[in-house]
Amino acid sequence: MTPVPFLDLKAQFAEVGAEITAALADVAASANYVLGPRVAAFEEAFARFTGARHCIAVNSGTSALHLALLAAGVGPGDEVIAPAMTFVATTWAIRYVGATPVLADVLPDNYTLDPEQVQRKITPRTKAILPVHLYGQPAELNELLDIAKRHDATLIEDAAQAHAAMYHGRHAGTFGQSGCFSFYPGKNLGAYGEGGAVITSDDACASRMRALRDHAQSQRYHHDELGFNYRMDAFQGAVLEIKLKRLAAWTAARRRLAARYIELLADLPLTLPMTSRHREHAWHLFVVLHPERDRLREALAARGIQTGLHYPVPVHLQGAFRDLGHHPGDFPVAERIANECLSLPMFPEMTNEQQDAVVAALKDAIQGASY
Fold it and tell me: Which of 63, 65, 98, 269 has the smallest count of CB within 10 Å of its CB?
């Protein structure tokens, strides 16, 4: 019986630990702990990596979404269309700016925002469309961009799970006015604490977000509007710049593992993830669907196989959004994913032996074997 973690950050540290430890010591010795040259170096590197003109590093992916909406001029009285199947931070940010989340269902094949539903949800109050590149797969960006342009709405990408994902040869996050990333430790590019960033090629948008993250200072102690303390600390900037150099290799490893999972699980009665045309999936998560998800998860746990649930309660059924007036059945695709999703172990350092153990345990669980 081979136990398999859901994520193995200790294995990753074994690869990068010496370099990162030295960098953290340099930051400590510099006494330059907030923003500063280490964060600026990461911002420059991440902008170059994605092909964006600007990267604004912040303290979380949630803060990134908040700033992107503010920079787009979204506020009270506005509506923002977002998917019902996402991590709740997507919709927190809409509420933070005083706007109303207008939820839409996701596509049954790639679980991203359904453009037809978006078109039906558009009103004169629609200020922005906020697709999520769920699990690391880019949304239907060309169609959503077309809808946004026709209705004078701003497209903002939630790319929190889509580091190095590609759509028609371009990085996810570079299609809308802004692309928002999370560097939570478990992400494909993860910090050693909280972290996030917004990328944009809009100079005015970038300038405003840089000010807003630092108490809206146009110059020191001069505050032009309500600002926030969303600054990235220098330790995270140092970690992320070092790990970014390895992101391409780590993404290639994830893609290899995903292809191998799909091959090994092909004969099982599971709904397997797929990659839509003109996309390169980042495979932040490898999510299968099965109507007896909870039973399978318990059986895997009994064999030491850790799994995750992303996400077991869709946004429209969360208590915090009860006021939107939704009920079970309103978004059937999102609800099916929530009820059946099971995230299997996926990390670049995963061995074939570990993956084989996951597959064997899953086969036995589906067949109802006892251990």
Answer: 269
